[in-house]
Known about the structure:
The chain is mostly helical. It folds into 2 domains: 1-78, no CATH class; 80-155, AhpD-like (Up-down Bundle). The chain contains 6 helices and 2 strands; from the N terminus they run ββαααααα. Helix 4 runs antiparallel to helix 5 (101-113). The two termini are 39 Å apart.
Amino acid sequence: MHVLVGLTDPSEVDTQAPMEPTENAEEATQNSRLNGSPEAEEAQVDHRPLPSSDMRSYALLTPELKEAYFKFYKATYTKSVLDIKTKEMVAVGASLVSGCKGCLEGHLKKAKKVGVSAEEIAEVIAVALGVAAATIVDRSDIANFNLGGLYGKPE
């Protein structure tokens, strides 16, 4: 599966600039393991061509929706209770948990610009990791409960 690098700051959007396809981390790992092996051919399930270099971010939004989104996004970065450094740390964590590669890259760059340290980013990653792990526990607990305690309680 190929994903497009997303844009995170609508105020800096060049809607005429092409978006370049990139491979996700899982696919990169799989490809590096399989490269050159007979399994490599078999592992390529998606035979669709890569997106065209003419692909544009926000291409499926109407002009009205795009304008509304940009207005909302800009409003989240106006002066408020949270300073810009804190907002970028929140954005990095949210990007990690939501799985948005383009968002993560954009917000890591912005975080660096506003003075977020490597130690702070490491802590943001640890918090996001904790939330992601808790999500798995929560989903499995709910599924087991919804199935009438199919697997009972772990000892």
